[in-house]
Design goal:
Elements: E1 3-9, H1 16-28, E2 33-38, H2 52-63, E3 69-71, H3 85-95, E4 100-106, H4 107-114, H5 121-127, E5 129-133, H6 140-145, H7 148-152, E6 159-162, H8 172-180, H9 191-200
Parallel strand pairs: 1-2, 1-4, 2-3, 4-5, 5-6
Length: 204
């Protein structure tokens, strides 16, 4: 039985920080694989800057030399109003029946789940395991202890908290802004992705 982390994000575009974060979690948490899961452009709470095909192409370019990294377009292919992390994790647990599935997220999302802002928040926590990355200004232990949803569904193995060494804050939006303003964020993302953006004239 293996251990798989599900790393969801817009990846608009994927950055070197995404890759560094995934690799750090892979090693610290002794995962066998990390699945990069780009979110759907049909979501009402997010607005993508480029078409799905470009985000997915760059994701494949970025991880092509790491056999422990996998790209999956499951959420990209789902209907907007049917997408939820709870249903997504049910899908992956069914697909990888003999493995343990972990959802990778930041501490800011932990607070949102604890406040019941996600669909099926109670069941989501009760039935799944999470790897939670620290965010500046957020006390993860306090977030868990003060939320009935989080603390009442924590069996001691529900949350794997990573509180050191993941505080790099180079975002996809920063890179998009640099491109749109004529900057050159070449060394903030994989070289193949940088070339693809230039060739396809994306983010300008």
């Amino acid at each position: 039985m293996g251990k798989i982390g599900i790393y969801g994000s817009s990846f608009d575009p994927i950055t070197n920080v995404h890759l560094w974060t995934a690799n750090t979690i892979l090693n610290r948490c002794k995962l066998d694989r990390v699945i990069f899961l780009p979110c759907s452009s049909k979501r009402r709470d997010k607005k993508m800057q480029i078409e799905d095909v470009h985000r997915l192409n760059m994701l494949h370019f970025a991880i092509e030399n790491n056999e422990k990294f996998i790209a999956d377009d499951y959420e990209m292919n789902q209907n907007a109003w049917n997408i939820s992390t709870y249903e997504t994790l049910k899908y992956f647990k069914s697909k990888y029946k003999h493995d343990t599935i972990y959802f990778i997220m930041g501490a800011d999302l932990l607070i949102d789940i604890g406040n019941g802002k996600w669909g099926n928040s109670d069941l989501l926590v009760k039935e799944n395991k999470f790897i939670v990355m620290a965010r500046n200004g957020i006390n993860m232990l306090k977030a868990i202890s003060t939320s009935p949803i989080l603390r009442n569904n924590d069996d001691g193995e529900t949350f794997h908290l990573i509180d050191k060494g993941l505080a790099m804050e180079i975002s996809s939006s920063y890179i998009r802004d640099e491109f749109s303003l004529g900057g050159d964020p070449r060394y903030l993302l994989p070289e193949a992705c940088y070339r693809y953006i230039k060739e396809q004239s994306l983010y300008i």
